[in-house]
Amino acid sequence: MIRPGVTLGGRYRLDERIAGGGMGDVWRGTDEVLGRTVAVKILLPALLDEPGFAERFRGEARTMATINHPGVVDVYDYGSDQQLAFLVMEYVEGDALSRTLSRVGRLTPARTMALVAQAADALQAAHANGIVHRDVKPGNLLVRPNGTLVLTDFGIARSALVGQLTVAGAVLGTASYISPEQAAGDVATPASDVYALGVVAYQCLSGHRPFDGATPIEIAMKHVRERPRPLPGDIPPAVRAIVDRAMDKDPSGRWPSAAAMASVARQAAASLTTTVQPPISSPPNSAPPHAQPRHPGPPTSRPQSGAAARASVPRPVSGARGAASVPTSPSPQMHAGPMPPPYRPQSGPPANAYPSPASPAAKPENTFGRQVLVVLAVVLALLVLLCAGVISFLLRDGNGSSAVGSTLGYHSSSAAILRSGVVADPVSVASYRLMKADAQLGRIRLNEGQQTL
């Protein structure tokens, strides 16, 4: 009985069952010789009863061990013990794509194309070594925390797939991604893996498999006879064309190789990541991005609305164990308000780079400046009038003081002359007084004339 703590081959201790499928169970184990964590895949005992299966399994395990590609899991060892056949592989710290899809529902077109490109590169490395995976599905695509993808669990058993489908529930997951030629009983080819990868991309973009059914046979026959439901309308045409061609019923109509599919998927991912997606939601009274005016100057520093700011931040998805960081664009489930179709790229500068229109607060600033100028002009005019009044008052006061001073000066001058004794003649003194009086009287008349005028 297989349970935690059992040691296989006298070397590999089983620690925890981490996955299971139609081929067998996968355990996290420990290599007690090298002291490293490994993944141990234990094949179903029923598969060992098939004639020649053990020899084919061992031969293809050796071939897989020769594949040196970062997107293909490394195979360390093969063995049999206690009527069991097992395969020892690299333990990938990450999360299966199937688990991520069960949490988020669907991925963005850009993220989907990036993962498809990595998976296609890994398939091409296997195809170049004469190996067909035959079991490409989200459960066999592991995503590391850094976002890189690893293809695991090669379906190296060449058992008749149609015969396996008769086992109720044994390969239900595999039947959902099976190619039409495999379902018809033909030999799997590299084009079969391309078809299965197209089905994986379809599920990532739509959130569901292309065909459903009550039994694996029913699902497999739908792959042969029926067309899948159209992808959602928010999927870009270029991405839709890539998936449609990969899922062509005729193998000759699909991408000629996994390398060709990887190339177009990578180009699509690059084009989608360099363009800006429309904001997920916007305030009710705000204009759409294409209606906002564009100015040649730099954008203003006014902060954006909370919804628009959140829309530009990618959100990683973490798992319960071995968190597989699969950043996704905001999905429809993340917003409760109305939103435009997501994932539709638009050309032009980013939405947050659009300069915001002149705010209404600019007009009050100009009006205030004009008011200040008017107030200064009025104050200046009042100061001018005040200065003119002061000057006029001083002029009038100066004239009166002159008259009084002149009169006082006359008496003082006469007294001074008499005291000084310079003029000894009384007649001269009297003449001088008459002259001063006449002069003073003339000035008084002159002032009166000026005042009259």
TrEMBL record:
Residues 12-272 form the Protein kinase domain. It catalyses: L-threonyl-[protein] + ATP = O-phospho-L-threonyl-[protein] + ADP + H(+); L-seryl-[protein] + ATP = O-phospho-L-seryl-[protein] + ADP + H(+). GO terms for molecular function: ATP binding; protein serine/threonine kinase activity. Gene3D superfamilies: Phosphorylase Kinase, domain 1 (3.30.200.20), Transferase(Phosphotransferase) domain 1 (1.10.510.10). InterPro entries: Kinase-like_dom_sf (IPR011009), Prot_kinase_dom (IPR000719), Ser/Thr_kinase_AS (IPR008271). One of its GO terms (biological process) is negative regulation of fatty acid biosynthetic process. Keywords: ATP-binding, Kinase, Membrane, Nucleotide-binding, Serine/threonine-protein kinase, Transferase, Transmembrane, Transmembrane helix. Residues 269-362 are annotated as: Disordered. SUPFAM superfamilies: Protein kinase-like (PK-like). Its EC number is 2.7.11.1. This is non-specific serine/threonine protein kinase. It comes from Actinoplanes missouriensis (strain ATCC 14538 / DSM 43046 / CBS 188.64 / JCM 3121 / NBRC 102363 / NCIMB 12654 / NRRL B-3342 / UNCC 431).
